[in-house]
Amino acid sequence: MADIAETADQSRDLRRRPLNGALRWDTVVGALLVVLLLISFSTVNGFGNALNLSFLIGNTLPVAAIALPMTMLVAGGEIDLSVGSTVGLSGAVMGALWNHGMNINEIIVICAVLGVACGLVNALLVTKLGLPSLAVTIGTMALYRGLAQVVLGSNSVTDFPQNYLDFGSGRLGGSFLPTAALPWLVLAAAAVVVLHATGFGRSVFAVGASAEAAWFAGVRVKRVKLSLFVATGLVSALTGVFWVLHYASATYNNATGLELSVVAAVLLGGVDFDGGRGTLGGAIAGVFLLGTLQNVMSLANVSAQSQTVVTGVLLTVSVLGPRVARQVFAASIYQPTRGKL
Amino acid sequence: MNEPGPDLAVPVLALEGVSKSFGAVRALRSVSLSLYAGEAHALAGENGAGKSTLIKVLAGVHRPDEGAVLLDGSVVEFGGPAAARDAGVAVIYQEPTLFPDLSVAENIFMGRQPRRSFGRVDHRAVREAVAALFRRLGVAMDPERPARGLSIADQQLVEIAKALSFDARVLIMDEPTAALTGSEVARLFAVVRALREQGAAVLFISHRLSEVFELCQRVTTLRDGALVAAEPLAGLTEADLVRRMVGRTLDSLYPKQETEVGAVALDVSRLTREGVFTDVSFQVRSGEIVGLAGLVGAGRSEVARAVFGIDRFDAGQVAVGGRRLRPGSPSLAMAAGLALVPEDRRAQGLIMQMSVERNIGLADLKAATTAGFVSRRTERDRAVDWAAKLQVKYARLSDLVGTLSGGNQQKVVLAKWLATGPRVLIVDEPTRGIDVGTKAEVHRLLSQLAADGVAVLMISSDLPEILGMADRVLVMREGRIAAEISRADATEQTVVAAATGATAGSAR
To answer: Cβ neighbours of residue B482 under 8 Å, at least 6 residues apart?
Structure first.
């Protein structure tokens, strides 16, 4: 109610209060990850060997890859729930074209173009028609999954070239790093630079915090959003290729539900669901925190049901955590609903 | 030192020696205030003087660190806003907070509707109670209409009706007129006067000093959280009040310099946006300040938005420095040398959850960018530079811009746009809601910019500001340019007459 509304000249009283809840939260998540890793190395049998670590990382890579553009998208005030279906559609197209005898490299290029197209459809529905991305991408989530089923039916394609399958599941020398971790590292580094050190990155946060003020400052709001959706589509489609190679199986239902893991990890990493705040470091820490936890629970023979419950609890806490941290401060910087109704 | 109020009685509500600190900031230092029944009392002071804190103490939001709140002469402790409200203290804010989808009547009785059997809301009783309240206020409004779509003025009347429904004896109004037109202000004042005559005590806050003199009998002035004076308004001049608020004499509120008028910098011709404005043509030359006056809703801001590319337009064209602009693109308008300081600084001018330095740098990221990378050092240096030039008061540049006072926020918006080195600067209500000292600084700055050859288009609802600053005045009425008046011919009468289409002097 109006009772705690404040006027502008009051706000100087708040000058000294710490405000960056998100920044603190991503540090918390990073620290949690380190603690979890230390505990796991010292107490969980079989955790520290190279094979297990490569499984952990390899199985986490799809989420880790899509979390990069998703972090930008959420920081930009939008969301894409169709990523899991895009992974599935990309894999299905890959399988179908391979069955047709097409060259594998050409197939990968086609999948990439397909991903761009998927992202573009989302982007145009959001920017041209002004629809909320949550609703748009719930729709395209069903659409893309449906297309995947049309393309591949209930077939399962597995006979991809061995050297490609090796890329999907192999390790670098005898180390714990999966081969596919290398391109991911390059992509992650690029994403960090783009979001946190370029003008484009600034625009993303500006758009997420206030699209109106950003537009008044000359930011090309629609173009920013369009780029983010397209990047998300592209990375999702490439992840679809990796998924097929990693699990040596192309089916229409690859990566079902992946969007929830991605969004959950990003939010766990402290990226504000309302946009304008968040770091890629936090999101990546969130991804690997969840991945490690699942790996450890499997090693400790925790039942699948219990694993789901533990993950669910953690996710709930993670969505609440940054909120609560921020609300402690937000209580003091409450702003009244604007007068215009 | 204080003379007793009009009816020589005990004050309805009073503060005695109240102090309040937030961390190291002393917002109020031993401030006293007495509100009497049947009296309208003004609270004057610059932004950050402690007015809002004082109101919040009265409204039970803040508990004083020292001193006491007195109700009818006895000490009370309001446990919270609800306790203050139940004691008859109501606060009307600048921007009311109604539920848009509920009816006016439902808003007024939100949470305490009269009930019939089985807990059903007694709609007829609500309707009749609200109709009675509106009769008392002399307001013609349909209690059944939804709150959505009400003007801010009407929303405030709904809030006042709500306050009355709580039997409020003290009405605190925090800058209620900031977003109101002349006739809306007149209607609000009529309501407030009626309430005062019915015995309510009124505490009124406004940056428009003429309104203070028009409505109030006494004034309490704060500066830096401390009491400067509490005195009757009769016998004071606006200059006296300004001196008390600022602590010094302002050389001039409108330091207009004579400038060399150069070539046409902004050329707007036959601009039309259907249903919003029609056939708008004007030019602004470099070195010139052109005032754009008119009633709220006449289409002034809409023209500015279309010129800058925020909104598209249907016909006409805009040229900057002889080059025609592509419609609908702020970034291209900026590249051509246009800058717009928008009307709504919180929603349009600033990104409240970003730091001061990032806000200053946002419109001109290129300046701090090399090979695609933003240099934080360059960004900071530029922010330090511009903040110093505009005398922005801040603790740290990395603080969120939302933590600054309103006047300083406005300076940040100006800094952000001046950093782009514009040749045409459009300012929309550049001094709305900011205190008189900062206002004079903003005026000096605009004057200096014009002297440096910038073409300035200034939209303002503050008539003295238009008359004091503009070389020429364009007046809009109902989406068209109704008149162009030279500085020599511009008076309150001529401008108001053109804005309302009436014969001179009938608007206020």
So the answer is: B294, B475, B476, B498, B499, B501
Question: Are the C-beta atoms of B358 and B379 separated by less than 8 Å?
Answer: yes
- The tally of domains found in chain A comes to 1
CA distance A235 to A228: 11
Tokens 């008044």 map to which residue?
Answer: A216
Cα A226 to its chain centre, rounded Å, is: 17
**What number of other Cβ atoms are within 10 A of residue B337's Cβ?**
19
Is B348 in contact with A216 (Cβ distance < 8 A)? Answer: yes
pLDDT in tens, A181-239: 999 999 999 999 999 999 999 999 999 999 999 999 999 999 999 999 999 999 999 99
Phi, psi dihedrals of residue A161, rounded to the nearest 5°: -60, 140
SS3 B457: strand
Mean pLDDT by 10 residues, chain A (341 residues): 36 40 72 94 91 94 98 97 98 97 96 98 96 96 97 94 93 90 97 95 96 95 97 98 96 94 90 90 95 92 87 78 64 39 38
- Report the C-alpha gap between A93 and A114 in whole angstroms: 9
The beta-carbon neighbor of B348 closest among A6, A199, A213 is A213
- HSE toward the beta carbon, residue B335, CA cutoff 13 A: 10
Residue B428, token pair as written in the block: 């929309």
**Within-domain flag for A170:** yes
Start-end of H helices in A153-220: 162-169, 181-197, 199-209, 211-216
Residue B488's Cα: distance from chain center in Å? 28
Look at residue B451 and give its three-state secondary structure.
helix
Q: A–B: how many Cβ contacts below 8 A?
A: 168
B352 to chain A, any CB pair closer than 8 A? The answer is yes
Q: Do B95 and A209 touch (CB under 8 A)?
A: no
Question: How far is B64 from A67, CA to CA, in rounded Å?
Answer: 49
Say if CB B143 and CB B158 are below 8 A apart: no
Contact residues on chain A for B53, CB-CB shorter than 8 A: 10, 13
Domain with A295, as residue range(s), is 19-36+45-332
d(CA B143, CA B136): 14
Contacts of B157 in chain A (CB under 8 A): none
In this complex, which of B150, B159, B333 lies closest to A341 when CB atoms are compared? B150
Q: How far apart are CA A287 and CA A29, in angstroms?
A: 10
Query: Tell me, what CATH number does A249's domain have?
Result: 1.10.3470
- Each residue of B377-432: pLDDT tens digit? 999 999 999 999 888 888 889 889 988 888 889 999 999 999 999 999 999 999 88
- Does A326 map to a domain? yes
A339/B179 CB distance under 8 A: yes
Alpha helices in B217-327 (DSSP H): 238-246, 300-308
For residues A275 and A208, is the Cβ–Cβ distance under 8 A? yes
Show Cβ contacts of residue A42 under 8 Å, excluding neighbours closer than 6 positions. none
Identify the structural domains of chain B with CATH numbers, from first to last: 13-98+150-246 (3.40.50.300), 251-337+422-508 (3.40.50.300), 346-417 (no CATH)
Neighbours of B82 (CB within 10 A): 12
ipTM: 0.81
